[in-house]
Automatic annotation (TrEMBL):
Residues 59-218 form the Glycoside hydrolase family 31 N-terminal domain. PANTHER family: GLYCOSIDASE FAMILY 31, MYOGENESIS-REGULATING GLYCOSIDASE. This is alpha-D-xyloside xylohydrolase. GO terms for molecular function: alpha-D-xyloside xylohydrolase; carbohydrate binding. Pfam families: Gal_mutarotas_2, Glyco_hydro_31_2nd, Glyco_hydro_31_3rd. Keywords: Glycosidase, Hydrolase. It comes from Streptomyces sparsogenes DSM 40356. Its EC number is 3.2.1.177. Residues 585-670 form the Glycosyl hydrolase family 31 C-terminal domain.
Amino acid sequence: MKFTDGYWQLRPGVTARYATSVADVDVADDRFTLYAPVTRVRHRGDTLNGPLVTVEAWSPAEGVIGVRLWHHGGRRPRTPRFPLATDPDGGPAKTVREGSTVELVSGALSLKAGTGDPCTLEFRSGGKVITSLGPRDLGFVTDADDRHHMLARMSLGVGETVYGLGERFTPFTKNGQSIDIWQADGGTNSEQAYKNVPFHLSNRGYGVFVNHPGKVSYEIASENVGRVQFSVEDQSLEFLVFAGPAPKDVLRRYTGLTGRPALPPDWSFGLWLSTSFTTSYTEETVSRFVAGMTERDIPLSVFHFDCFWMREYQWSDFVWDPEVFPDPEGMLSRLKERGLRVCVWINPYIAQKSPLFAEGMAGGYLLKRADGDVWQWDKWQAGMGLVDFTNPAAREWFAAKLRHLLGQGVDAFKTDFGERVPTEDVVWFDGSDPERMHNYYTQLYNETVFDLLVEERGEGEAVVFARSATAGGQRMPVHWGGDCESTFEAMAESLRGGLSLGLSGFGFWSHDIGGFEGTPPPAVFKRWVQFGLLSSHSRLHGSKSYRVPWDFGEEAVEVTRDFTRLKHRLMPYLFHAAVEAKESGTPVMRAMLLEFPEDPATHTLDRQYMLGPDLLVAPVFSEDGTVEYYVPEGTWTDVLTGERVSGPGWRRERHGFRTLPLLARPGSVIPFGAVDDGPRYDWADGVTLHVYPGGADGSETVTTVPARSGAPAAVFTIRRSGGETVVETDSDLAWNVVVVGAAPADDARAHPAGALYQAPPGTHRLAVPAAGG
């Protein structure tokens, strides 16, 4: 929200008060508090008839410093609040007062405050100032409508760029944007967002989380081009600064407080096929689709039933439409016999025509107005009410309906909606503040569903397909990008949103392959298939038209088959990246900045990404197959063609529909599984290590192949020395090594990628010639 009119003036009706100087300081061992008047105090009389801004600093974990400022502190605590963990391994913070400054130190991060005139805050990490707040950067503002806003402004350095703030489809770097953290159902081509997270990350090696679940208004190098400003309509404002130095370190610290994702089940990494939204479908349609995939040799892991599995005007009542699906248990059993998992669409809205509306109203499970009536409107579903998840009984009631579906054979739920939550004339069961609950509602909704899946299926088997989220929502994977059009432009904006979400602490992300609105031209569909199957999760889904590959031509079938099978072979690599997301908060799909923070050319890249640590993916966004992408330093190898590419530099290539730039990092070792007809198998049994050129002589690489639990199933140590590559392992299973680009020696045989060396079961060491380059 903008308060100023240029540099010199305020907007009409706006009054601003900033912490000008420091009148007093309280210093404890692990925190300090500043009492800052908003005018300069020349004599005792100036202490009268004026406010103080109180500023408290503390550290909840090593390398993290929190700042809370408030004007009037007499307000009752508002709920909901983001639950934040503390770091059990973090060392205690300490304060040091020296002359006119007081400093709070937490690991590599410190906050130095001026205790005189002016009032300043300066954050340092690694001996450098990373950001600061000056005399006009902390305070409060009243606007023309007499609304009270607390605000903070943090400096931006030369060349500093800002990322994150949730899944945003606007430009990837957020500099120059005004952003409101406010859940909205706005599609993927607007400034609105389904997933709003008040956390931003800087390429200078720090992140900032505004600990407020309601509306947070950002001005990012917009109102003041040298500042990131954030404000809330409240009497207090709290933010936490996370040290790096690398972006991955920032995400590790941030997710250490807000939560890290659970590990999704292995089967969820396979291909999902949907009925689509308003298309006509019956069990015969579903069977035809599944059989069609089998006939075309395209492995399928999950079948998804979208909204109309239930009767119209009755969403959500969780009852199969008897005219369309007269035998749901039998149908689900028949799908299970084909080896499929089943997902069904749900939302937290209860239509008036549904018998559940009266049941929910009688039980007090629906959101009420101030006069005690149920809150209702006619958008989406006629006369719908909203499940009040702040009521524990309502959560159990809702979960019980889903538990019945799990008993029928359903495995996962697409938790759609959760954004259009009213703030006027509503009373939540637990007394939550309506403005704060607007964004937070989705957290309770997804928690209810995810916790049920964990309870019924066990940890490691629970997965949702969620559209809305806020800070902490990453704990309940997976999230998908929402309603996009079926164009190359929408494909690119979807990727921007996914990369933005990954830099907001979310480890797993998907999108509608082919686009949702409209019907994609065959070229768009085939290119989106490549992109989708090189994402953490992959779903074919549309609105008014089907997304079965044969509707887009025989070549679309071939592309879908090839890339589905490629993804299955990459499961040892992908699932290890998933474990990394669970353990450290690093997303599976990574903005280039995350892997190459020292290369400034990567800081604005939003049409390519790293899939895990070692695979560079550059989706093709053009009709004729032309793609431009950037290659960081070193000798990279195209996984699909074997071509070697040298960086740093830009590449311009033209690809047919069977390829795209998919490059292995210099010196990387990528494990390929032995099975390509599904994601669930023993990844360590028969694994083939592809050793790519570019590794330095004397270098050592450790490659871990996980088990389904996430624990290591096999660990390989690869050492390069002279003209030899030595592989050692603790595995007793059979395994193989491909030296990529090498001609087969006497003890090797030819492989499309190079020379293949086989290690029979029980082999723990293998020495092979190294590839040149």
